[in-house]
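Amino acid chain:
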Amino acid sequence: MSYGKRLQDALHRAGRTRKQLAAELEVSPQAIGMVLNGAEGVERKLSAVNNEKAAAYLGVSRLWLLTGEDEPDRQPQKIAGIGLDALIEMLPKNDLLLRAQVFAQASQLIITAVLDSRKTQVQPTSSQAEKQP
């Protein structure tokens, strides 16, 4: 099933119209129509951000909406305490570029957080350092 067909199915399940979805995503109804109908014979998808918003608004799994994998009604599980490697394993195995991009972005965020935390650590002033035995 194409992305447009899944989006149409999600709209039907939620009892919403393309105009309502367009208003929610702050895009034109024509843009939604292009996604639903595969304008110019090309499968079109919402942006990643709008896919997230649409899935939440329509009450469907964002993974199902994006890829067709998973069940439409499955809601995301809480992932607190899960390792980066486990998160990357949740990505489609055949999309190596996406997996590499996610890993690179996550690594950069971790490095930035570590560097920022080092900058904010209180450094003893020279007078404080002299008082210590």
Q: What stands out?
A: The chain has two domains: 3-67, 84-120. Residues 96-120 form the longest helix (25 residues).
